[in-house]
Specification:
Helices cover about 30% and strands about 30% of the residues. With about 190 residues, it is an alpha/beta fold. The chain has one domain (about 15-180): 3-Layer(aba) Sandwich (Rossmann fold). The longest helix is centred in the N-terminal third of the chain and has 15 residues, at about 15-25. It is globular, with a radius of gyration of 15 Å.
């Protein structure tokens, strides 16, 4: 898989395997959102594991070209939508009508924890049934996954989103969040 250039951290094999072993059952036939998509690895993996469609959002033109090439090489372009733009701006505009998504991966640059938290806050504000997004960004039984530097402080609760699991792989951590109404218990799992 191609990567758009320096500063991009594509999903490593171990991270990808763990991420999708957890998400795969709920993705089949559902939609997937890859925010700060980079190479598109998360969305392409979701499509290959049965997601009906995937939306890729990245502001970088080189990233969008790379995602396009990766989709072409995997023959998955027909089930993909590429958006060149800022993730928060998209969530505040057209994104409000794009969901609901069974799975969402949020993967901004590691040094932008503020952007990670702001994106999670925006997803939480667009819960299913809200006036802003009746269908919601994240489906009622969906999962949002924040990919971040392991030392980054990701809140355990953001609106009605609750952290239910965390996995660590060297310097990378994945924090899984679900709606409190989904009844998910915090598992407190950490892989090192």
């Amino acid at each position: 898989m191609l990567a758009p250039g320096e500063g991009t951290r594509p999903l490593g094999d171990r991270v990808k395997q763990t991420l999708f072993a957890i998400l795969e059952p709920q993705l089949r036939g559902g939609a997937f959102l890859d925010l700060f998509a980079g190479s598109g690895a998360a969305g392409i993996e979701a499509l290959s594991r049965g997601a009906e469609r995937a939306v890729f959002v990245d502001r970088d033109a080189e990233a969008i070209r790379t995602i396009e090439a990766n989709l072409a090489s995997t023959r998955l372009r027909g089930r993909a939508t590429l958006i060149r733009g800022d993730a928060l701006t998209w969530l505040n505009g057209d994104g409000r009508r794009a969901g609901p998504f069974a799975g969402v991966v949020v993967d901004p640059p590691y040094d932008r924890v503020d952007l990670l938290v702001a994106t999670l806050e925006r997803i939480a504000a667009l819960e299913p049934g809200s006036a802003l997004a009746p269908e919601g960004i994240l489906a009622a039984d969906g999962t949002v996954v924040a990919k971040h530097f392991w030392k980054a402080e990701v809140p355990g609760e953001i609106g009605l989103l609750r952290s239910v699991r965390e996995r660590r792989f060297g310097e990378t951590a994945l924090t899984f969040l679900r709606w409190a109404s989904a009844g998910a218990d915090s598992e407190g799992e950490v892989d090192r």
